[in-house]
Amino acid sequence: MDWYEYFANISPGLQGKIISTIILISGIWLIRLLLLIAVFKKVKEVRLRYHWRKWSLYTCSAFVTAALSIMWLKGLQSLSTFLGLLSAGVAIALKDPLTNLAGWAFILWRKPFEVGDRIQVGSIAGDVIDLRIFQHTLMEIGNWVDADQSTGRIIHSPNGRVFTEPVANYSKGFYYIWNEIPVLVTFESDWKKAKEILIRIANKDAEQLSYAAQQKLKKAAEKFMIFYKKLTPTVYTSVQDCGVLLTIRYLCEPRSRRTTQQAIWEDILEEFSECENIDFAYPTTRFYKNPIEGKEGTKGNCRE
User: What share of the chain in percent tops pLDDT 90?
Assistant: First the structure.
């Protein structure tokens, strides 16, 4: 110790603190490692293992921080003054990291989202696959991929964005989303029959969710002011430039939007292919002669 003090110019007291710090960190790390090994032998579920890793890390980090603070700050005559000056300097120099740290504390406390939820923060949407002190990690959905399916990209987003960007959670509260499928048929088609077909298809593929949604809605209403009078599928009618628009509106789970949409469209194609008086509409050019094709009361004079 004397030799090291002579060449490194470090006092014995400081040397003791350094050695104690190394022993403390190594010991806590070893205890955490042994704890995780023992837990993972019994716990096989991925989600539970993830939570054990995270909370053991947070607990050990808090313990080490408290122990090191007592060890290194012991003996300061004016601890409050020192901490005040230090916090002022840190707040200026590390504004963004501190904001992200506050965002992490807010996420743990208020739980706007958790690992496993599907969320959108600002313009970025995805499934939360990790949550750390300064950032959360998403498996991106959407972007160039339709129907909210994964792109395969992993996005690391700062936690501080929860204070400045709108946060949308697909998995909290109601647990379901409304999806709409527009079906455009020609003016000459029997749109009433087409609407009956669409209602029947929507009920077959989506009505089973209505009862489950009712139960989820009752539970969500205890926390949020959410209320719907009608949860069963429906079809709305409107008119577009090139035909009659029939819009199917139904409930689906956030991650099954594309599969339910595919099932409904396949049924629509099969049903419409068997109907002689129903055609899909699409942008086209058509010449219309009112004196010949118009209704009796709206025909004008026809001059040859």
Answer: 33
Residue 251 buriedness (CB in 10 A; 0-12 / 13-18 / 19+): buried
Would 296 be classed as within a structural domain? no
Q: What's the domain range around 265?
A: 177-273
Distance CA 243, CA 276 (A): 17
Judge whether 280 lies within some domain. Answer: no
The pLDDT confidence band at residue 300, using thresholds 50, 70 and 90, is low
Here the CATH number for the domain that contains residue 237 is: 3.30.70.100
φ, ψ for residue 119, nearest 5 deg? -135, 170
Structure tokens at 7: 């060449």
Q: Which residues contact 163 (CB under 8 A, 6 or more apart)?
A: 99, 102, 103, 106
Q: Do 10 and 65 belong to one domain?
A: yes
Q: What angle do CA 204, 207, 211 make, to 5 degrees?
A: 150
**For the sheet containing 135-141, what is the strand order?**
150-158, 135-141, 124-131, 118-121, 167-169
Query: Are residue 265 and residue 208 in the same domain, yes or no?
Result: yes
Would you say residue 295 lies in a domain?
Answer: no
Query: Is position 159 within any domain?
Result: yes
In this prediction the pTM is: 0.66
Using only C-alpha atoms, the chain has a radius of gyration, in whole angstroms, of 32
Q: Are 5 and 11 in contact (CB under 8 A)?
A: yes
- Count of domains in the chain? 3
Q: Please tell me the distance from the alpha carbon of residue 126 to that of residue 105, in angstroms, as a whole number.
A: 21
